[in-house]
Design brief:
This protein is mostly helical and 101 residues long. 55% of the residues lie in helices and 6% in strands. A two-stranded antiparallel sheet has the order 1-2. The chain is rod-shaped, with a radius of gyration of 36 Å.
Length: 101
């Protein structure tokens, strides 16, 4: 029997009979019993690869956010102090020496 899958209207999902499903389960159990170490090693490697891929995607997702978040905004940045020479000829009324004299 063929029926349409709810998630994707273009794909047809094959419904297997209970006998076929049970036969497949028995075949899987026999294979697992004979090749337990191989099956577990493959599961472990697939898990590690998937986890590494997820971490990489997470890093890429937040890389731009973090670089933009931790950069200084030019409007709010710390002003650059200029080295002023002590000029006696033109007194500056905002200088401390002018105020104290």
């Amino acid at each position: 029997m063929l029926s349409m899958d709810e998630r994707s209207p273009q794909r047809w999902k094959r419904h297997l009979s209970e006998e076929t499903l049970e036969r497949n389960r028995q075949r899987s159990k026999l294979y697992y019993a004979a090749n337990r170490a191989k099956v577990l090693a493959k599961l472990k490697s697939n898990y590690a690869e998937k986890r590494q891929r997820q971490v990489q995607e997470q890093c890429e997702k937040y890389r731009d956010f973090l670089t933009n978040y931790f950069t200084l905004d030019p409007i709010v940045s710390v002003p650059v102090t200029k080295v002023e020479e002590d000029n006696e000829e033109t007194p500056n009324p905002l200088r401390l020496s002018y105020i104290l004299n």
